[in-house]
Amino acid sequence: MRINLKVWRQAGPDRPGRLVDYVANDVLPDMSFLEMLDVVNETLIVRGEDPIAFDSDCREGICGACGFLVGGIPHGPDPGTTVCQLHMRRFNDGDTLTLLAELPELGRLDRRRIAALVGVAPVNCDSGQFRGQRHIWGGRASVRTALYMAALVASRYNPVLRVFYQRLRAAGKPGKVALVAVMRKLLTTLNAMIKHDTPWNPATS
Description:
The protein is of the alpha+beta class. Helices cover 36% and strands 14% of the residues. It folds into two domains: 98 residues, Roll (Ubiquitin-like (UB roll)); 94 residues, no CATH class. It has five helices and seven strands; from the N terminus they run ββαβββαββααα. Strands 2-1-5-3-4 form a five-stranded mixed β-sheet, sandwiched between helices.
């Protein structure tokens, strides 16, 4: 089968990065996810390009320390399975997957710090007695961009986040403010899922 990939590429922690499109052809269902990436890397090396690599790439399938997001889901769609143990039979021909390892801190920080790190925490604009509007600012723009698209879809189709978004809009919040709140809630939910090694639970989200 054919899998379309959007992979976060960054030369180092202090270097700018971007999402790059790749295509994995002739992917077998029994391949592990990392074996599929090996096939992509072999093609990149033949073309003289840098292979896809990650700071935490233990392949032991036990730690989950890499903070790998597959399609916006920590370690992919199988609950309780690290990306090292994920197999391609879980996906369909023609699927497009966004792979992010830009946030290894996911699951290691509290909800306020992870929101500030990504840049979805409100920052005040006060000076003396003046109290300005709160805005989001700074953080990792690449992660925020991917989170924005996930939140946009979730605000329409996720049963929990759709209600959350609609409640904010009914309370008079502008659409963009309400969507950023969905981004923050989605991020903190992912953070808690990684930290406590639990699947998505609508009742506690």
